[in-house]
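Suppose you are handed only these lines of text.
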Amino acid sequence: MKAIYPGSFDPITYGHLDIIRRAAMLYDELVVVVLINDAKKPLFTVEERVEMLKETVGELPNVTVKASPGLTVNFARKEGASVIIRGIRAVMDYEYELQQSTINMMLADEIETVFLLARPEYSFLSSSAAKTVASYKGDLKHFVPNNIAKRLEEKLHK
Ligand code: ADP
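From them, the structure of the protein bound to adenosine-5'-diphosphate can be written out as follows.
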């Protein structure tokens, strides 16, 4: 069975990485997809985010990384995937995810959204938190892998 894991990944954090590893164990194939949404004013370009994801999950044999504009369900259909993976950290995520996945259900009822709970050690972790800490030159070792910490530093301080 094939699944997709859509998100902004601006940039990938240890929380995303954990969800990717766990989803890759559950499904035969996992496509991590950077959804192009310029309304969010991302720090990194789509190409940079794809590159960072590839660097980080490259060793996982059944995981590929792509980028896509438009609706998540259309991407899932194009890929022949029947599952959308999302991560849930707290009640705050639930409200947003409930809305998104209900809309997706109405658009494509053959596609299921499967939620994986964040591990407790990552439940505080977000791309925004990593960017804030990086902007004040804080230690990123609990937030993102080394290669991503370097990219954040280059982007924000060079
Ligand atoms: P989006 O803009 O689509 O929310 P994100 O890159 O912020 O994109 O998140 C992608 C998915 O990963 C979302 O389902 C989000 O809830 C989940 N996620 C983000 N951070 C974590 C984390 N620390 N642990 C588990 N899931 C997470």
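What can we learn from it? The pocket of adenosine-5'-diphosphate is lined by residues 7-9, 13, 15-16, 19, 86-87, 89, 93, 118, 122, 125-127 (CB under 6 Å). The mean pLDDT is 96.
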